[in-house]
Write a structure and sequence with these properties.
183 residues; Immunoglobulin-like; 5-stranded mixed β-sheet; 4-stranded antiparallel β-sheet; 12 strands; 22% helix
Length: 183
């Protein structure tokens, strides 16, 4: 093989190697769009860590069916939520709120961070699902995991002010509740 032919062959091999490397990188990047498998407790812990700032991400949002986390490197990972539990985050307010349907674990901010509330959640038949004092997180939201495919009456009380709302946990329902005005 002469030197020119050897150079052309090496150049072709280099081009093929580069094409294969690019294809592998693109395939790896697309993998972030497929739902990742994780057990319910792992998902709940990840959501808690993202909400509290213990885990860092460039962005993280949670719909009725999936958690989408984008890392600092731009990699997007999608996690399927547990089939029996629905995530909802509530930001009670007095003066200021924002419209929201899909909760951003890294972006949404409520008016009342680190604030204590009395919380009562009742199912459609009036049975108590949860009754306790809770403290909103640093982002002003109260994160809850409720049974799926039900309707609940939520009552939040703070220093004589009360907010009451019906929420539901069916597919396509909002995971971000910013309409509970304390009055």
């Amino acid at each position: 093989m002469n030197a020119k032919r050897l150079k052309r062959t090496c150049a072709r091999l280099a081009a093929i190697s580069a094409s294969v490397a690019i294809a592998l990188m693109l395939a790896a990047g697309c993998g972030g769009n497929r739902p990742e498998s994780a057990d319910g407790e792992t998902i709940r812990q990840l959501v808690s860590d993202l909400s509290s700032g213990k885990a860092e991400a460039a962005a993280a949002s949670i719909s009725s069916t999936e958690l989408v986390v984008t890392g600092a490197d731009g990699k997007r990972t999608v996690y399927e939520l547990p089939g029996d539990a629905f995530f909802v985050s509530i930001a009670p307010y007095i003066e200021t709120t924002h419209p929201c349907a899909i909760h951003s674990l890294t972006g949404c901010r409520g008016e009342l961070p680190n604030t204590e509330f009395d919380l009562l959640i009742e199912d459609a038949s009036g049975g108590k699902v949860l009754e306790q004092s809770v403290v909103s997180q640093g982002n002003g939201f109260i994160d809850l995991w409720l049974p799926r495919n039900q309707t609940f009456r939520v009552t939040i009380i703070r220093e004589g002010l009360t907010a009451v709302a019906l929420i539901s946990t069916f597919e396509k329902d909002p995971t971000c509740i910013t309409t509970m005005k304390l009055s």
